[in-house]
Amino acid sequence: METDLFLDEVLSRVKEFLASSQTEDEIRPSDSHTSLSRTSDLQLPLEGRGLDAALDDIEQVLRHSVRTTAPGFMNPLWGGLSITSIAGELVTAATNTAMYTYEIAPIATLIESTILKRIAELAEFGTSQGTLTTGGSNGNLLGMLCARQAKFPMSSHAGVDGTKMVAFVSEESHYSFNIASNVIGIGHSNLIKVRCNEHGQMRPDALEEEIEYAIQEGRIPFAVLATSGTTVKGSFDPLREIAGVAHKYDLWMHVDAAWGGSCLFSSQYRSLMDGIELADSFCWDAHKMMGIPLICSAFIVKDAEILQTVCSNGNTAHYLYIETGENVDLGRYSLQCGRRNDALKLWLAWREIGDAGWASMVERFMQLANYLEDRVKNHPSLELMSERMWTNVCFRYVGGSSMDERNQINAELRQRLIQDGRFMVSRSTINQSIVLRSVVANRSITEASLDAFLERVISLGKDIERGLPQQ
Ligand SMILES: Cc1ncc(COP(=O)(O)O)c(C=O)c1O
Fold first, then answer.
1. I need a surface site. Which of 151, 264, 347, 424 has the fewest CB within 10 A?
2. C-beta of 282 in contact with ligand 1 (< 6 A)
């Protein structure tokens, strides 16, 4: 088969997969790990199989993939389809390059710089620098690394004794901060979890108490890590008050806006991140609510020099960076060497719909989440399990006669929902209660798909209840 024809055939299969994802009931193939391992042909052959066989392979992959663009997909904090972004992925692969130097990625460098500048502007960060990273987890790592560098300017060169250094984060924060604590050399136990209020927001008074206590204990605070959009409840920490505390103690403030950062587009919801301009750095996943295919994530910092220092190669990369007088090579601001052009797909999508398009998308998601919340609140068999600030809707089926039984029902319900294959939501725990965490971050979701989702939850819940042993 010729290359041209092959590409046409691939595209037609991808188009068919995407179109049928909007209409197919089943969004997740039901094969178990054991049966899929047994029935699929994944062996790497001694002799090549050719392009025709590659088409069969592609069909096999599509047949056994979760349809994450389908309206029933409300599981992680991402999903849905941006067609310009998919085009961007294709062009990125076709123009295969690495983002380290302008020389090798001229237009891509300008595109990434344009995006970073615009994101910084949205947060009113003034002149700043940033980089696209491998995700919010690495954005948080960079934030902590910059904080460490700011407090201990010799650390990138001489290393640190991290045993006394402490950073502060909300008890509802993402687990990536634990990993980052390990990587930057302070260890999990030096990441202090600050108490939250009943809405899941970090309490500024509790933060100050923890900082005071740490100082009295002879420890060295260096970073306050706030969250805009927590993973489970979608809570936003009060940034302005937290910045007040961070500045009082001369601490770096980083904001994990991986999930909630998109509120900055909407004049209606921007206030959720009131005070972001007071932070030193933040990260934002365009691959979450903005629906850009993974991976697409930004880290922005006010002090460009600090980012450059933590990403310094110690002048050993003479084979890559050649002084041209212009500091335009983005590799100087990244922990990676080879790095994909993740900017293109976001740039294309942004040019397609503009700031106004992002704003209406965010507002539509909130409208749908309000709808889901109302339906949950008004149904006697359902219970909303946390106050809503963003598009996370945490709820449970109300059944059983004890806490244990209710948890058992909801755990089983979620399991059956996944086996059923029509809707996917995640399972979380809030105050020892098992909850279904559904999120609206997928452009295919409609009021009708949410109605169908709740109907399914209720009917599965009733079935499970009927199967419980009688008291
Ligand atoms: C609040 C928050 N921060 C960071 C992350 C990590 O983002 P990524 O998966 O892009 O590394 C997540 C992931 O869900 C998250 O919910």
1. 151
2. no
d(CA 112, ligand 1 centre) in Å: 21
Alpha-carbon gap, residue 280 to 404, rounded angstroms? 44
Task: Using DSSP, state whether 261 is helix, strand or coil.
Answer: helix
For the CA of 287, the nearest atom of ligand 1? 10
Say what angle helices 403-420 and 447-466 make with each other, to 10 degrees.
120
Rounded Cα distance between 398 and 95, Å, is 53
Is 386 close to ligand 1, i.e. is its CB under 6 Å away?
Answer: no
Pocket probe mutation, ligand 1, options 74, 77, 346, max atoms within 8 Å of Cβ: 77
CA angle 203, 164, 189 (to 5 degrees): 60
Non-local CB neighbours of 288 within 8 Å, separated by 6+ positions: 77, 78, 136, 258, 259, 262, 441
User: Which atom of ligand 1 is closest in space to residue 288's alpha carbon?
Assistant: 10
Question: How far apart (Å, rounded) are the C-alpha atoms in residues 409 and 399?
Answer: 7
CB 426 within 8 A of CB 259: no
* Sequence-distant (≥ 6) Cβ neighbours of residue 390 within 8 angstroms: 229, 234, 235, 236, 259, 260, 263, 272, 366, 369
Q: pLDDT tens digits for 431-461?
A: 999 999 999 999 999 999 999 999 999 999 9
Cβ contacts of residue 162 below 8 Å, gap of 6+?
Answer: 184, 185, 186, 187, 190
Residue type, 450: L
Residue range 103-110: average pLDDT? Answer: 96
Residue 428 CB less than 6 A away from ligand 1: no
Say what the pLDDT of residue 127 is.
75
The CB density around residue 183, as the number of other CB atoms within 10 Å, is: 13
Residue 166, classed as helix, strand or coil, is: strand
Please indicate whether residue 259, judged by its CB atom, sits closer than 6 Å to ligand 1. yes
Quick one: tokens of 5? 């024809």
